[in-house]
Design a protein that fits this description.
By secondary structure, this protein is of the alpha+beta class. The protein has three helices and eleven strands, in the order ααβαββββββββββ. It has helices at about 5-25, 30-35, 65-70; strands at about 55-60, 70-75, 80-85, 90-100, 110, 115, 125, 130, 140, 145, 150-155. The strands form three sheets. It has a four-stranded antiparallel beta sheet. A hairpin with a 2-residue loop joins β10 (about 145) and β11 (about 150-155). The structure holds FE2/S2 (inorganic) cluster (FES). FE2/S2 (inorganic) cluster (FES) binds next to loops.
């Protein structure tokens, strides 16, 4: 066997034996299964069906997410931008408001027991009325309810 034949056979043998190891190392599913389980970070996202029901309510999210985050909000909800919280005065009751600031249309956020607009500082009380300008008009309310595990908002 001459040197060139030996090198070709040795190179092929090396490639054939190392290829399966290299493929396995690059396979993301095997890498993920080796990782420690983090059920909170990898919990499957719950798909919410927003199709309006016969009573005019549509699901916005889950009660679990409402309680975990302190609010539920969606700019592209079927009825329009909405934010839902538990009433600070009565946790059994929910409050749902149009989340589009009446000043210039930014999305209001729930913080420190008030709806606050991050753009120019307007604040709104839990009934939607303006407590700090520059906004002058209140946020419109939505009807809201809990049905089972879901938070439902009236869309029609
Ligand atoms: Fe909200 Fe201006 S858009 S205060």
């Amino acid at each position: 066997m001459i040197r060139r034949e030996f090198n070709n056979l040795f190179g092929l043998g090396l490639l054939a034996t190392s290829l399966p190891v290299a493929i396995a190392a690059c396979n993301p599913s095997e890498t993920a299964s080796d990782a420690p389980a983090d059920t909170a970070a990898e919990a499957p996202e719950v798909k919410i069906d927003e199709t309006p029901r016969a009573d005019g309510f549509a699901a916005l999210g889950t009660v679990a997410d409402l309680d975990a985050n302190g609010y539920l909000g969606k700019k592209s909800f079927i009825a329009g931008p909405v934010i839902v919280i538990r009433d600070p005065a009565n946790a059994e009751s929910l409050i749902a408001l149009n989340s589009m600031c009446t000043h210039q249309g930014c999305g209001v956020e729930w913080e420190d027991n008030a709806f606050a607009c991050p753009c120019h500082g307007s604040k709104f009380s839990t009934d939607g009325s303006v407590t700090d300008g520059p906004a002058t008009e209140p946020l419109d309310p939505y009807e809201v309810m809990i049905d089972g595990d879901l938070v439902l908002v009236k869309v029609s």
